[in-house]
Amino acid sequence: MNKLLQTFLSDAAQRRPDAVALVMGRERLTYGQLETATNQLAHLLRERGLQKGDRVGVLMPKSPAAIVSFIGVLKADCVYVPIDPSAPPARIARIIRSCDNQWVLARNGTESTLDRLMEDPPPGGLRVGWMSESKPASSNFEPTFLSDDLNNYPGEPPNSRLDSEDAAHILFTSGSTGMPKGVVITHSNVLHFVDWAVRYFRIGPNDRNSGHSPLHFDLSTFDIYGTLAAGAQLHLVPPELNILAAKLAEFIRSSELTQWFSAPSALNLMAKFDTVRQDDFPTLKRLLWCGEVFPTPVLAHWMRRLPHVTFTNLYGPTEATIASSFYAIPECPVDDKAQIPIGKACEGEALLVLDDDLRPVPPEHTGWLYIQGVGLSPGYWRDEEKTAAAFVKSPHVPEPNARLYKTGDLARLGRDGLVYFLGRADTQIKCRGHRIELGEIEAALNTITDLGNCAVVAIDADGFEGKTICCAYVPAAASSVTPAMLREKLRETLPVYMLPARWKAFEGLPQNANGKIDRKKLKEQFEQERVVS
Questions:
Q1: What residue numbers bound the domain in which 471 lies?
Q2: What is the pTM of this model?
Q3: Which of 39, 242, 446, 492 has the highest count of CB atoms within 10 angstroms of its CB?
């Protein structure tokens, strides 16, 4: 039988139909209910004319209805496109037009965005499937169907015409030209990672996993399908908790989670406000992070508080599907300056540290990080030029493994056989004639106890200096830290030319839609202040 992502749900529903699959607030769906709802949606979409490979936008807040939409679209032999409902309507319109999709599944909370989209609909129009019980409060669009209409369709699964190499979803990331890039992810890409991860982490039907990441961010793909594969429970974290450290911690406690997975920003926030008690979260077994560097002092804080939990660093860009490498932290770091490796490749993948000619560099030498193997996306949606630039063929690797993805990250292979992330190439700057890695400055700042969080960016400088180093920081609770104090402490570990010249205090660092520090916005703020001054 050809395995597809929806197979995880169907198998679990057959084994334990009454087991809880999804939880968000007071809303719960069992595996049987989820299976029936997704089958009904698939039959409805097919009847309305959707064909194999058609793209369907899913424009709605995080909710069980969004998960129903994802899997229902797959069962209709189509491709779902998760869209951030908080994104500007102009960006949403560009995504919809680039995908040529005539359908969007939406629910309450998105009416105003849809009104804007209907002012200039894509060629051929835009049909809206309304996945809420309450009708939309809008006059600019009329839904093609309402959620109640699903009850008129069979609850049995339709026959699938998909292959595991077919696209499952398209995830849009920021593009350097201002046009979002659509990363095509196949069923096979996700299946390989989930099959490995469920075995490695020993996720089972008694697990209660977090769903913290936004649904348009690829970390959520593991939250969803890793949970379904194990027949476990997925507890969706309400987005409004992301800036409320105490409530995030309480969510872990009250939901009795066994697994937490997020970008480090959420963990930094909870540590900053000291919301995790000693031996807290007694049911928690695993804490995983991906997407950014987790500062070693904050990691040590968590490991001291939760000695019963295993901690794992995952690394991987969207183009390589969720994560491509892992490193389980063997013991609590005693040195705040210790570098945490990104580790070894996940099953079926390889991490390669190469030079400009795509040849391996010796251990302990810096090179470009490339990824090889089963997680690689087929490429960017309808953009052969960008695909050819990012996915390259190595003349030194025999087929069928010659295709590589250039991450744009710098790395080194340690003598311990582990790979160490050294930062992105675009975070390596030249200032006053010196080459500087901004990540090294951040690492030094993160050892200062008076800081709650920080980020270092560089903006253009006048004259010979090249770049001006700027530090955005959040003081720790009850701290009266000043830039002068921070400079003095940095001088103990960094040369003068690496000290930030500009400083700005924040109550909380801005985050992008994926929950990462929004460095682009920080750079813009520093640049605007330079112009004003």
A1: 432-532
A2: 0.85
A3: 39
